[in-house]
């Protein structure tokens, strides 16, 4: 059963309390799930991170933990729930979501619990940009943005869901601490257009590693257009699977594990 091997605890910071599922040992990685929920394929990815020597912290921000992802569930969550909730800022450029403050506090907590040089964070789809906004927390040293899909408005002109102050902080830290950002997408994905990735490169020159996959690198037979790099559309082999391997290696290297 999904999450059977995870411990569960509620975590409170500011006005928000959310359940967090934890597994593994070693330095911490915050796995921020995509729409519609902390679903089975996100959990599978977290399992592989834990197997690589990392402690995964999987907060449940919306939806039913352990559910099976479907297109209908994603549409329902996105338009009837998430986009109107105050803890998320889904529409405008230059704004991060209020829930990111809670995620920063979770990163501090995870670092205190697990030690190591810092914490990794990966966001997916709706939460894809959260890992970058979390860089104002000094514990976060390894941000991964998988198919970052916010904000909804201005995507074709390079909008991103990060404030100017958060951009400036991340830019300073990338240079001062010799850090970098990993960003993933399928090139056909209308939610993650070229302009958004070029904006990351413009804001953080020389500090962004992009992995941009063709449709043939996606798992087939899902009934959905290629989008979810690390979950729904993750294949068993080829460049798509190599992308997951790179993400795990990125975390292991940044978080100080041997043989990264």
Count of individual helical segments: 7
> What's the overall geometry?
globular
Percent range of helical residues: 25-40%
For the record, the count of structural domains works out to 1
Order of helices and strands: EEEHEHHEHEHEHEH
Largest sheet: 8 strands, mixed
Provide the fold topology.
Layout: E1 7-13, E2 16-24, E3 28-32, H1 40-51, E4 55-59, H2 71-80, H3 99-114, E5 119-124, H4 130-133, E6 140-146, H5 164-176, E7 181-186, H6 194-203, E8 208-213, H7 239-254
Parallel strand pairs: 3-4, 3-5, 5-6, 6-7, 7-8
Antiparallel strand pairs: 1-2, 2-4
Tell me about this structure:
- The chain has 260 residues and is α/β, with parallel strands linked by helices.
- The chain contains seven helices and eight strands, in the order βββαβααβαβαβαβα.
- The longest helix has 16 residues.
Summarize the structure.
With 260 residues, the chain is an alpha/beta fold. It has a single domain, classed as Alpha/Beta hydrolase fold, catalytic domain (Rossmann fold). The chain contains seven helices and eight strands.
Provide keyphrases for this structure.
single chain; 260 residues; alpha/beta; Rossmann fold; 8-stranded mixed beta sheet
């Amino acid at each position: 059963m999904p999450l059977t091997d995870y411990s569960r605890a509620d975590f409170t910071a500011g006005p928000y309390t959310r359940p967090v599922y934890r597994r593994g040992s070693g330095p911490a990685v915050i796995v921020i799930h995509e729409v519609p929920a902390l679903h089975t394929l996100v959990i599978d990815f977290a399992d592989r991170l834990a197997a690589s020597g990392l402690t995964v912290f999987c907060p449940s921000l919306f939806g039913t933990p352990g559910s099976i992802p479907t297109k209908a569930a994603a549409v329902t969550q996105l338009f009837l729930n998430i986009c109107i909730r105050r803890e998320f800022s889904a529409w405008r450029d230059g704004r991060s979501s209020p829930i990111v403050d809670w995620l920063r506090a979770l990163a501090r907590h995870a670092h205190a619990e697990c030690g190591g040089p810092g914490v990794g964070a990966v966001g997916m789809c709706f939460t894809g940009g959260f890992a970058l906004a979390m860089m104002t927390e000094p514990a976060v040293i390894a941000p991964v943005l998988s198919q970052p899909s916010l904000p909804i408005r201005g995507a074709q002109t390079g909008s991103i869901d990060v404030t100017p102050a958060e951009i400036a902080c991340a830019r300073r830290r990338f240079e001062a601490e010799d850090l970098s950002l990993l960003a993933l997408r399928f090139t056909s994905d209308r939610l993650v257009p070229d302009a958004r990735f070029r904006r990351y490169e413009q804001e953080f020159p020389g500090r962004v590693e992009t992995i941009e996959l063709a449709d043939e690198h996606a798992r087939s037979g899902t009934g959905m257009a290629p989008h979810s790099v690390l979950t729904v559309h993750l294949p068993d082999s080829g460049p798509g699977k190599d992308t997951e391997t790179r993400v795990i290696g990125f975390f292991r290297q940044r978080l100080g594990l041997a043989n990264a």
